[in-house]
From TrEMBL:
Coiled coil: none annotated. One of its GO terms (cellular component) is plasma membrane. GO terms for molecular function: ATP binding; ATP hydrolysis activity. Gene3D superfamilies: P-loop containing nucleotide triphosphate hydrolases. This is ABC transporter ATP-binding protein. CDD domains: ABC_Mj1267_LivG_branched. PANTHER family: CONSERVED COMPONENT OF ABC TRANSPORTER FOR NATURAL AMINO ACIDS, CONSERVED COMPONENT OF ABC TRANSPORTER FOR NATURAL AMINO ACIDS-RELATED. Residues 7-250 form the ABC transporter domain. Keywords: ATP-binding, Nucleotide-binding, Transport. InterPro entries: AAA+_ATPase, ABC_AA/LPS_Transport, ABC_transporter-like_ATP-bd, P-loop_NTPase.
Length: 258
């Protein structure tokens, strides 16, 4: 099947001062692809997300989204057109409730971002409240609705962070280590949730848990020393000697994570 290209990265590089962190990154992402991004610590994975999400400008190269050159488009404009990221560390407003965090995201999505500082009276914003409750119910999180975020466990907070990303209705969702620091049950919750996302949503997943990333991806990109070492079918990546050598060097085995 010939799927439409949604994201295209051509010859992208990033240097900090004289230090080249990423070089000549080139690939094409089709709508609805599920791409796992793996590589050892310091390979440049997060820097690469910073370039895709507009949190950093590349030193070289061009990034296209739906055919539009977005290389220097700021992060909030990319979020508005559908490129949304989650972070390795939580980015929530921890003194607010789960519902309030969700309402803030929904408000922005509905173009009501300018009223975020006003008290949200349900009768004036019933559409937002309805949508928030619908999402919390769909995700099985009704019990968390009125909990203050900082009272939740680290893993629960990470779940909420990912759910906020999904609530914005992205076209491309960039997940940065979605299961880091989670218990097995919390990891299973996230994996199941990601499996239920609409097929047309394009997902990119940086993940150190190889079982999780191989289970979710239909394509894998291996970053190593700032470049793409392998880009292809997960089975090919799993059997690639160079990739195995890197992971065995780190004390891990790719073949164990089937
Ligand atoms: N702002 C910066 N200034 C200088 N060097 C940086 C900056 N940001 C990242 N680096 C360096 O770039 C390299 C790649 O970092 P990056 O965080 O992208 O790697 P990573 O693959 O995401 O690693 P990890 O798996 O540990 O999160 C590292 O050597 C890091 O120290």
């Amino acid at each position: 099947m010939n799927r439409e290209s949604i994201l295209k990265v051509e010859g992208v590089g990033k240097s900090f001062g004289g230090l080249e962190i990423l070089r000549n990154i080139t690939f094409d992402v089709k709508k609805g692809e599920r791409i796992g991004i793996i590589g050892p610590n310091g390979a440049g994975k997060t820097t690469f997300y910073n370039l895709l999400a507009g949190d950093l400008d590349p030193s070289k190269g061009t990034i296209y989204y739906c055919g539009q050159n977005i290389t220097n488009l700021p992060n909030y404009k990319r979020a508005n057109i559908g490129i949304v990221r989650t972070f390795q560390k939580n980015n929530l407003l921890t003194d607010l409730t789960v519902l309030d965090n969700l309402l803030l995201v929904l408000q922005r999505k509905e173009g009501l971002g300018n009223v975020w500082f006003k008290p949200r009276v349900e009768k004036h914003y019933s559409i937002l409240f309805e949508k928030a409750r619908e999402l919390l119910s769909k995700w099985g999180l009704e019990k968390q609705t009125h909990k203050i975020v900082k009272s939740l466990s680290y893993g629960e907070q990470r779940q909420i962070e990912i759910l906020l990303g999904i609530a914005t209705d992205p076209k491309v969702l960039l997940l940065d280590e979605p299961t880091a620091g989670m218990s097995q049950a919390e990891t299973n919750y996230i994996v199941n949730l990601l499996h239920t996302l609409p097929k047309e949503l394009t997902l990119m997943i940086i993940e150190h848990d190889l079982e999780v990333v191989f289970g979710l991806s239909d394509r894998m990109i291996v970053l190593y020393n700032g470049g793409i070492l392998v880009d292809g079918d997960p089975q090919i990546v799993r059997n690639d000697k160079r990739v195995n050598d890197i992971y065995i060097g780190q004390g891990e085995s790719l073949s164990a994570s089937s």
